[in-house]
């Protein structure tokens, strides 16, 4: 297998699968929502999602997004093409991660996105340059001990109807609020409050789909005292008002 670089446009249609190769997804425009092995996150410009071999993931973009996607060949290609960089690239591709690019790395991604990617030489050399650049110290990648997203999700789900504080999640992670904020940005591209809001709205969408509860009651169950504020939040998150989302999801 040769490396391939492709430009892709993602929409609200959910993609859920895994690959027999590793993949890097570089954000160019818009926001691409990811769930990788049960952990949510997003990719925006200057962000990269690392998807190791056979990692199951789902993604979609309610407002549309453009990405540069690198499909990475096998171990033999890494060794032959990256030389002394192969070990660092192997470690990079060993576990799911969200990487934040610096300005120069972002320029490289944008330059490649404007290049004739169908040319095998461009694809080969572009893949090598991208992987080598990610092996440098400038890429901000989270450490091996990930945040306890399972505990976060359980706490948010149990307390969704009540005011939720970032300090509550910080205590669960045994981190300061400032450190938690930085780790959230590095691991899933969101602030803690954005994560809480998104989790509440996903819960609301499930209630719209799976129950006949009035929209006002669902709003209250996920912490919104105003039905109009709830409707505005759902519109921003999913591109449709609650009533339209209920019709759409129940029709599927």
Automatic annotation (TrEMBL):
Gene3D superfamilies the record matches: Homeodomain-like, Jelly Rolls
Swiss-Prot/TrEMBL keywords: DNA-binding, Transcription, Transcription regulation
Entry GO MF terms: DNA-binding transcription factor activity; sequence-specific DNA binding
SUPFAM superfamilies linked: Homeodomain-like, RmlC-like cupins
InterPro entries the record matches: AraC_XylS_family_regulators, Homeodomain-like_sf, HTH_AraC, RmlC-like_jellyroll, RmlC_Cupin_sf
Keyword Kinase: no
Domain of life assignment: Bacteria
Domain named HTH araC/xylS-type: residues: 150-248
Ranges that cross the membrane: none
A Pfam family reported for this protein in Swiss-Prot or TrEMBL: HTH_18
UniProt keyword Ligase, yes or no: no
Function field: Regulatory protein of the TOL plasmid xyl operons. XylS activates the xylXYZLTEGFJQKIH operon required for the degradation of toluene, m-xylene and p-xylene.
Name this polypeptide is given: Transcriptional regulator, AraC family
Protein's organism: Pseudomonas mucidolens
Taxonomic path: Bacteria, Pseudomonadati, Pseudomonadota, Gammaproteobacteria, Pseudomonadales
């Amino acid at each position: 297998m040769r490396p391939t670089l492709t430009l892709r446009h993602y929409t609200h249609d959910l993609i859920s699968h895994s690959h027999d190769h590793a993949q890097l997804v570089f954000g160019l425009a818009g926001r691409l929502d990811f769930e990788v092995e049960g952990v949510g996150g997003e990719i925006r410009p200057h962000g990269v999602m690392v998807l190791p071999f056979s990692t199951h993931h789902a993604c979609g973009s309610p407002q549309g997004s453009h990405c540069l996607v690198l499909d990475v060949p096998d171990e033999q290609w890494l060794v032959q093409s990256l030389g002394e960089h192969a070990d660092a690239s192997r470690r990079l591709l060993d576990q799911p991660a969200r990487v934040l690019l610096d300005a120069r790395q972002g320029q490289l991604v944008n330059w490649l996105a404007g290049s004739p990617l169908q040319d095998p030489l461009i694809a080969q050399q572009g893949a090598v340059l991208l992987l080598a650049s990610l092996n440098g110290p400038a890429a901000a990648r989270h450490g091996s001990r990930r945040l306890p997203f399972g505990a976060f999700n359980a706490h948010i789900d149990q307390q969704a109807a009540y005011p939720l504080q970032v300090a509550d999640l910080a205590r669960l992670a045994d981190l300061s609020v400032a450190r938690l904020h930085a780790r959230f940005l590095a691991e899933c591209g969101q602030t803690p409050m954005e994560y809480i809001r998104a989790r509440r709205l996903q819960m609301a969408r499930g209630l719209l789909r799976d129950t006949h509860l009035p929209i006002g009651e669902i709003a209250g169950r996920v912490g919104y005292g105003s039905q109009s504020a709830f409707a505005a939040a759902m519109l921003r998150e999913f591109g449709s008002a609650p009533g339209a989302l209920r019709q759409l999801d129940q029709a599927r």
